From TrEMBL:
It comes from Actinokineospora guangxiensis. Belongs to the nitronate monooxygenase family. NMO class I subfamily. One of its GO terms (molecular function) is oxidoreductase activity. Keywords: Detoxification, Flavoprotein, FMN, Monooxygenase, Oxidoreductase. Pfam families: NMO. This is Propionate 3-nitronate monooxygenase. It catalyses: 3 propionate 3-nitronate + 3 O2 + H2O = 3 3-oxopropanoate + 2 nitrate + nitrite + H2O2 + 3 H(+). CDD domains: NPD_like (cd04730). Its cofactor is FMN. InterPro entries: Aldolase_TIM, NMO.
Length: 344
């Protein structure tokens, strides 16, 4: 699938409204590909977005699923109080900190009944029967991994490719474990060649994490990836569903990025704002904290929003998807040619 792309770039799935059908279709029509984010959508909403992509393009695209973790009961303590204080200030009610499985089984049923070319998984691996059912309807299966151990587990499960996520990635870390320590993870340029050299893997690798410039694309292709997955580079594109306050913060620049659990209960990288700084010790409680903070995040105050972004966000532009992809393609070819000249 990825070897057939004119531009070896994947527009990453970005849950929460960013991954619109227009964003995905624009990538496909420009010679790359993209993934719809199924996270937080109802099965009916996901079905509508899949249909909308098909109305806009005849090319191959994918859907990303969040793999649910075990049902847990967590005491949120002081973090719940901090969220409640922000909610009072903004004139909204906090959400209910409940556990759910994001209707994972229903979404799998949808994708078996109405297959798409590719399905990727984040936050772990589904049960073997899920992979079997999706494989039998012809979907290309991809697991997001952040460590060699996760890559070994995904390979043993029988997926078709690995999306290798480095530590500089914006948004949620795709780690299988949801433990109490923030997982820093290996830099992409350490992790990618390490996986290429691991005996027994042999799967195509899609590189992700902090990639914004065409030289980044050239570098990961030279390191053995079949494609580069970029998300932050497309956050400001007009086709993306990025909130206006989020767009403005990205355009303004000047903020550092950091990993935090404050907004969702899982480690995710975003622009540093007041809520992130004031809540450094949020517990490992996903999706409970995601539901708890949702009304606060939706209020539009950039100091309490989850401003997801990778470390190189300042290089992203507000150009249309096709223009961004063509620029990446040109930059990548220039970087690859320069590398060849240096090696002569």
């Amino acid at each position: 699938m990825f070897n057939e792309l004119r531009i070896p770039v994947v527009v990453a799935p970005m849950a929460g409204g960013v991954s619109t059908p227009e964003l995905v279709a624009a990538a496909v029509n420009a010679g790359a590909t993209g993934f719809l984010a199924a996270g937080y959508l109802s099965p009916a909403a996901l079905a509508g977005r899949i249909e909308a992509v098909r109305e806009l393009t005849g090319g191959a695209f994918g859907v990303n699923l969040f793999v649910p973790g075990p049902r847990t009961e967590v005491l949120l303590g002081g973090h719940a109080a901090a969220v409640a204080a922000e909610a009072r200030r903004l004139g909204v009610q906090p959400g209910r900190p409940v556990w759910d499985d994001d209707r994972f089984a229903d979404k799998v049923d949808l994708l078996v009944k109405d297959p798409v070319p590719a399905v990727s998984f984040t936050f772990g691996l589904p049960a073997a029967d899920v992979l079997t059912r999706l494989r039998e309807v012809g979907s290309h299966l991809i697991a997001t991994v952040t460590t060699p151990a996760e890559a070994e587990a995904a390979t043993a499960a029988g997926v078709d490719a690995l999306c290798v996520q480095g530590a500089a990635a914006g948004g949620h870390r795709g780690t299988f474990a949801d433990d109490t320590a923030h997982p820093g993870g290996a830099p992409l340029y350490d992790l990618l060649p390490a996986l290429r050299l691991m005996a027994g893997l042999g799967l195509p690798l899609i590189a992700a994490g902090g990639l914004v410039h065409g030289a980044d694309v050239a570098a990961v292709l030279a390191a053995g990836a079949v494609a580069a997955q970029l998300g932050t580079a497309f956050l400001r594109c007009p086709e993306a569903g990025t909130a206006e306050a989020h767009r403005a913060a990205l355009a303004a620049g000047g903020r550092q990025t950091a990993l935090t659990r404050a907004f969702s209960g899982r480690p995710a990288r975003g622009l540093v704002n007041r809520f992130l700084v004031e809540n450094p010790s949020a517990p490992s409680a996903y999706p409970q904290i995601h539901h708890l903070t949702r009304p606060v995040r939706a209020a539009g105050d950039p100091e309490v929003m989850s401003l997801w972004a990778g470390q190189s966000y300042a290089l992203a532009s507000a150009d249309p998807v096709a223009a961004v992809l063509e620029r990446l393609h040109s930059e990548a070819r220039t970087a690859a040619a320069a590398l060849q000249d240096r090696l002569k």
